[in-house]
Amino acid sequence: MKRCLILITAGLVFLFSVAVPGSIAAPQDIPAKTSAKPELQIPIQQVTLKNGLRVVLSEDHAAPTVSLCITYDVGSRNELPGHTGFAHLFEHMMFQGSQNVGKGEHLILVRVNGGDVNGTTTNDSTNYFERVPANQLDMALFLESDRMRALHITQANLDNQRNTVQEERRLRMDNQAYGKTGEIIGELAYDNFAYKHSTMGSMTDLNAASLEDVAHFFKIYYAPNNAVLSLVGDFKTPEALGKIKKYFEDIPSQPAPPVVDMTEPAQTAERRSQVEDSFARLPRLDIVYKAVPANTADWYALDMLGDILFGGPSSRLYQKLVKEKNVALQVGGGIDERRGPGMFEATALMKPGEDDAEVEKLIYEEFEIVKKDGVTPAEMEKVRIQDRLGQAESLTNTLNRARTLGRYAVYFHDPNLINTMLSNYAEVTPADIQRVARQYLGPGQRSVVLTNPKAQAPAAQ
User: DSSP letters of 134-179?
Assistant: First the structure.
């Protein structure tokens, strides 16, 4: 027995069915593939300006606000050896003032007008975003266009933000429990430099960055033809498009940046590393497998497999490691969303004194069960319900919508994926999940990192 749940929020309607506890239907009666496609349609209009800036507009009059996101097609994958950390450094540099905006004034103007503002850097892109009252759209467009057009790149700003980024690295990685584990995983698992180094970059490379290096990086990547502007909220499309053209269309385009090689050679032997962490208090086991780029058929199957294995207290490995065997306090995993080969990861935060080899063996046993017996239709249906509910909750926020549209436009050249992604999950079958488990989770394809707490020196008597 199922009931139909309709969630109406932020001007959008989400329609999906939910299994009712106590249903008389046996698990085998649940269809392997959801027959009806989820009802989710976000209005989108796409325009490309004369200078190459791609614009994605989505009206939503549920609240008198607008959310603006500029997504630049540049992340740490675009960096070269000896020049790591530039993409993240620029996230900070972009708030240091431009031709008509003073140092730090961008943040002040947005916040005193009732908005919020921030930026993020990943391996694959950098974005800048603000949510403001609808009557402040001109201000948001002006601020973003002014720094795209004429950022202040000075030695003083570079030195100041270099120090800020280095301090952020110390705070989030060097002096944080398990902070360097992620960096070590990337270095161990990847062969191509694009994903092999961390977004934070190295202290040595940041110290060596010159003003000329930084100005060159800005000219190549912070151009309108290398960006997507996504706007969601309370506006009229013709009027908003006219304003976007007013502020952005006369910014000169630049030659297209060099194409990034994302290919990875096949891994044929297991790789292992151990880390002693002065800040960790519990051992942690990380097992990763290089897999496929996001928005591919195998990626959707691996993503669903990750949810079945690690997605919450009812997942297979939580039940096995935390509940049944009582050897771990937390488990997690799944495949990440990358433009190049993503990583399928299994992570276990182990209890003190547990045998890490035994925990590792239990994880592999569960992988083998999937390879041999597959997954159940009931597990598939649970994951689809979780995905539909998660997307409905996420997209009620116009800022999340703007950022998602920008990411899909840059990563996959398809912002309408926001409307079709759930249908892609609906196409995955239990046989697909069994196949990708066999194809990508082999012993010779894994990289394993064990992080152990560093033994503390005895206190002086």
Answer: GGGHHHHHHHHHHHHHHB---HHHHHHHHHHHHHHHIIIIITSTTT
Q: How far apart are CA 438 and CA 367, in angstroms?
A: 9
Assign 18 a pLDDT band (cuts: 50, 70, 90). very low
How would DSSP label each residue in 196-208? HS-TT--HHHHHH
Query: Which of the listed ranges 29-43, 84-98, 282-296 does the model predict with the highest average pLDDT?
Result: 282-296
Q: What distance lies between CA 103 and its chain's CA centroid?
A: 29
Rounded Cα gap, residues 248 and 243, in angstroms: 9
Token output for 355: 């045998």
Q: CA 112 to CA 130: how far, in whole Å?
A: 13
Q: Determine the Cα–Cα distance for residues 116 and 109; give it in Å rounded to an integer.
A: 10
Q: What mean pLDDT is predicted for residues 138-160?
A: 94
Other C-beta atoms lying within 10 Å of the C-beta of residue 222: 22
How far, in Å, are 88, 158, 300, 370, 388 from residue 333 at the CA level? 25, 37, 15, 15, 19
| Interval 314-357: pLDDT, tens | 999 999 999 999 999 999 999 999 999 999 999 999 999 999 99
- Three-class secondary structure of residue 104 per DSSP: coil
Specify the pLDDT at position 111: 96
Distance from C-alpha of 36 to C-alpha of 161, rounded to nearest angstrom: 51
39-43, 64-68, 245-249: lowest mean pLDDT where? Answer: 39-43
How, if at all, do strands 126-133 and 45-48 pair?
A: unpaired
Q: What angle do the packed helices 297-310 and 377-394 form, to 10 degrees? A: 100
- The 10 Å CB-count burial string (b at 16+, else e) for 384-423 is bbebbeebbeebbbbbbbbbbbbbbbbbeeebbbbeebbe
Q: What does the buried/exposed string (b/e) look like for 357-369 if buried means 16 or more CB atoms within 10 Å of the residue's CB? A: eebbebbeebbee
pLDDT band at 457 (very low <50, low <70, confident <90, very high): low
Measured distance CA(431)–CA(428) in Å, rounded: 8
Cα–Cα distance between 148 and 165 in angstroms, integer? 21
- Take residue 198 and report the two structure tokens written for it: 């961390």
The string of pLDDT tens digits covering residues 405-417 is 999 999 999 999 9
Q: What is the DSSP letter of 50?
A: T
For 266, other C-beta atoms within 10 Å of its C-beta total: 8
pTM of the model: 0.89
Sign of the alpha-carbon dihedral angle for 77, 131, 294, 254: negative
